[in-house]
Design brief:
The chain has 721 residues and is an alpha/beta fold. It is built from 25 helices and 26 strands. Helices cover 42% and strands 23% of the residues. The strands form 5 sheets. It has an 8-stranded mixed barrel with strand order 18-19-21-22-23-24-25-26, surrounded by 4 helices. Bound molecules: ligand C2E and magnesium ion (MG) (2 copies).
């Protein structure tokens, strides 16, 4: 390989083929001779010009180039030798044949010395002249071709030099010892080195220390075939700085150069290094996106699984343990539905940041999607280690999180599965942690729990139930049963409580206790509540048109219904549609709703009350701080929870029920006792000042047509009294 110099390349205009035509100039003072030459020498592709003096010949030659000059030795104005000198001085390459009457050999030698190509004596023999002309032209043509060839070689070398010197790639050659013997100017902008400073220095000067072994192995690989190239990705360092952040990643193609053609020994290396830092960065961004969650920038499901599998393999080798946590934020959907997705996203980010602070180096926190997170603790000794971290996580969320729309107290349910006790594959461990998490949700949330294999079957049932529930509304599998609320004193039915039933195609009639929570978690409760309200109103309107104008209908609401902004208008418009007086509808809400005042429940309850509806507190007495919230929530009725009624086995006084009736009187509220199963309970309640009751003793919840029969003959309900 030739090493180009520094001159910039200027492409030549034409590298075309040698012109085949020959121009011949005849310079002779004898006009007869001038005329005969073209005849004697005629040949296709030859053209002739003629002139009788040296001066005129020079004029012609200044105008154009000739291949051959037939030059008389003596001319009137000067000797032919003068023209020869003229040509030599100007480095002209015209071939010259001297034609002269001078027969002295020294005249011929003189002419040939001064650059003539041949000499023909006058009077000439035609054949002799022709031979001389042919051979001179032939020689001239060869020289011309050679000149063109070397011109092309020069141009081609210039082109290659240009390509190498201006290449966007770093191009270099190394000698047999691996030292630079050539580097193109790209080195300066790429790495900041002066090319001369690197000459004769080892190539490894440029290589990042981390990659030196690798490249040395490659360069010294004896197994490579002569002339076989290799390609490797390599990090080169910049002239200042040797940190990994300050390097350029290149794709290097190396081609060993051979000492001699056919000789296997290497004489060095020809290398082309392309800067692929940009591509690398793009690849890193793409792979980051593929393995991370966009919102929190935490590892995603794919990366979590990778890390978990790796951790399992390592734990297996050292017979160690590891833990997987499955975390779900409690009631996260509320935030999203109430305050919008932007606020929900901000909350997720804040929670992710809090969770991160509880972890140790080497632990992985991932977001699986939605409000689900997982944590891999690859290095635990005893289950208590996982317990400590779970406690830390719950504590980390104890302080409220302040966002643009307010303060949030987030809690979470955490399920934990241990390797190898609860599973030996990534799938099993994650699934079992998920099941344990569900168990936490069921038993009140905001806690952690270890996987318990006996829970597994429940989990399968739950998944099947979820699938069926999604279709239940569409398939019309819901139905309302009605349970009367009776006044003992008046021996009348004063109200009916609408109780939801699900006619499951396989499991039969299901109580709401088995599916309401699932519907809440699946976000389906709103739709179900609307259906219940519509159905209950339709039914009440029917009974009213059958003459039961005083009858009140009680409808149960879920706390989640109060997260809906339009709860009030959606209920009042339902009443209007069915032309029902609002006082005939009682909404049953739970105490837990009132303890959670984030969703502005008090305002909504007040709006419902001022629209004329009754509001009852269901299962009253099972929550806390009852008095405090009764002052805040303008409810109309308290329903004494069944658990208090159950304890009533005789006409003795009961402190709790006395207290409840006392409260009710104080706040001027109605009272309904739930779960009355025995006549003794009814009597005791009556003595305690509680008149309206509901329970199996009077009637079990039943379909509408049965309820209508009770309405027609209420005395049947008091048969035992
Ligand atoms: P709840 O509102 O306290 O309803 C009373 C529950 O006690 C009903 O159970 C009823 O069948 C049962 N019960 C009535 N009398 C007696 C008795 O003498 N002894 C006993 N042991 N139980 C009695 P059910 O129908 O299974 O409903 C359970 C709970 O599901 C309800 O408790 C209510 O909180 C909820 N629920 C019912 N229907 C709906 C609904 O349409 N929407 C919502 N969100 N929740 C509903
Ligand atoms: Mg109820
Ligand atoms: Mg109840």
């Amino acid at each position: 390989m030739s090493i180009p110099g520094d001159k910039p390349f200027q492409p030549t205009k034409s590298l075309g083929p040698v012109e085949p035509d020959f121009r011949i100039l005849i310079v002779d003072d004898d006009p007869a001779l001038r005329r005969t030459f073209p005849h004697v020498l005629a040949h296709p592709g030859r053209s002739f010009d003629e002139t009788g003096s040296i001066a005129e010949a020079i004029v012609r030659l200044e105008q154009q180039h000739y291949d051959l000059i037939l030059l008389d030795y003596r001319l009137p104005d000067a000797s032919g030798l003068a023209l020869l000198d003229w040509l030599v001085e100007r480095r002209r390459d015209e071939a010259v044949i001297i034609i002269s009457g001078e027969d002295a050999i020294d005249a011929a030698i003189g002419a040939l010395r001064r650059g003539a190509d041949d000499y023909v004596r006058k009077p000439y023999h035609v054949a002799q002249l022709q031979r001389a002309v042919e051979s001179t032209l032939h020689k001239g043509a060869l020289e011309k071709a050679n000149r063109a060839m070397s011109q092309r070689l020069r141009a081609s070398e210039q082109l290659h030099r240009y390509l190498v010197e201006s290449s966007p790639d770093l191009i270099f050659t190394l000698d047999a010892e691996g030292r630079f013997s050539y580097i193109n100017p790209r080195i300066k902008p790429l790495l900041g080195f002066e090319r001369n400073a690197l000459m004769r220095r080892p190539f490894t000067t440029l290589v990042m220390p981390e990659d030196i072994d690798r490249i040395c192995n490659l360069l010294n690989q004896p197994s490579r075939m002569p002339g076989e190239s290799f390609n490797v990705e390599l990090r080169l360092r910049r002239s200042r700085g040797s940190s990994i952040d300050d390097c350029v990643t290149v794709s290097l193609t190396g081609l060993p150069m051979l000492a001699q053609p056919g000789d296997g020994r290497s004489a060095g290396l020809y290398g082309v290094a392309r800067d692929i830092s940009e591509r690398k960065r793009a690849e890193e961004i793409i792979s980051f996106q593929a393995y991370h969650d966009q919102l929190t920038h935490l590892p995603n499901r794919v990366l979590f699984k990778d890390r978990l599998e790796l951790a399992i393999a390592q734990a297996q080798r050292r017979t160690g343990a590891l833990a997987v946590m499955f975390i779900d934020i409690d009631r996260f959907k509320l935030v999203n539905d109430t305050y919008g997705h932007a606020e929900g996203d901000a909350l997720l980010r804040a929670i992710a940041a809090r969770l991160s602070t509880t972890l140790r180096r080497g632990d992985t926190l991932a977001r699986l999607g939605g409000d689900e997170f997982t944590i891999l603790l690859p290095d635990i000794n005893v289950p208590e280690d996982a317990e400590t971290i779970a406690t830390k996580i719950l504590d980390a969320l104890a302080a409220p999180i302040t966002l643009s729309q307010g303060e949030y107290r987030a809690t979470m349910s955490i399920g934990i599965a241990l390797f190898p006790r609860d599973g030996t594959t990534a799938e099993d461990l994650t699934r079992h942690a998920d099941i344990a998490m569900y168990q936490v949700k069921r038993s009140g949330k905001n806690a952690f729990r270890f996987f318990d294999p006996t829970l597994n079957t429940h989990h399968h049932e739950r998944i099947a139930l979820e699938n069926d529930l999604r279709n239940a509304l569409l398939r019309g599998e819901f139905e309302l049963h009605y349970q009367p609320q009776v006044s003992i004193a008046r021996r009348q039915i004063v109200g009916m409580e609408a109780l939801l039933r699900w006619r499951h195609p396989v499991l039969g009639s299901l109580s709401p206790n088995t599916f309401i929570q699932v519907a809440e978690e699946l976000g389906m409760i709103g739709e179900i509540s609307r259906w219940v309200m519509e159905e209950a109103c339709t039914q009440l309107a029917q009974w009213r048109s059958a003459g039961h104008l005083e009858l009140r209908m009680s409808v149960n609401l879920s706390p989640l219904d109060f997260d809906k902004r339009d709860i009030v208008s959606s209920i009042t418009s339902c009443l209007t549609r069915h032309a029902l007086p609002p006082g005939q509808i009682e909404l049953e809400i739970t105490e837990s709703l009132m303890m959670n005042d984030t969703a502005d429940v008090a305002t909504k309850v007040r709006e419902l009350r001022s629209a004329g509806l009754s509001v009852a507190i269901d299962d009253f007495g099972t929550g806390y701080s009852a008095l405090a919230y009764l002052q805040k929530f303008p409810v109309s009725t308290l329903k004494i929870d069944r658990s208090f009624v159950r304890d009533l086995d005789g006409p003795s006084t009961n402190p709790i029920i006395s207290a409840i009736t006392g409260i009710a009187r104080g706040f001027a509220l109605d009272i309904v006792a739930e779960g009355v199963e025995q006549p003794e309970q009814a009597e005791a309640l009556q003595l305690l000042g509680c008149d309206v009751m509901q329970g199996y003793w009077f009637a079990r919840p039943a379909p509408a047509h049965e309820a209508l029969e009770w309405l027609a003959q209420p005395a049947r309900l008091f048969a035992g009294h």
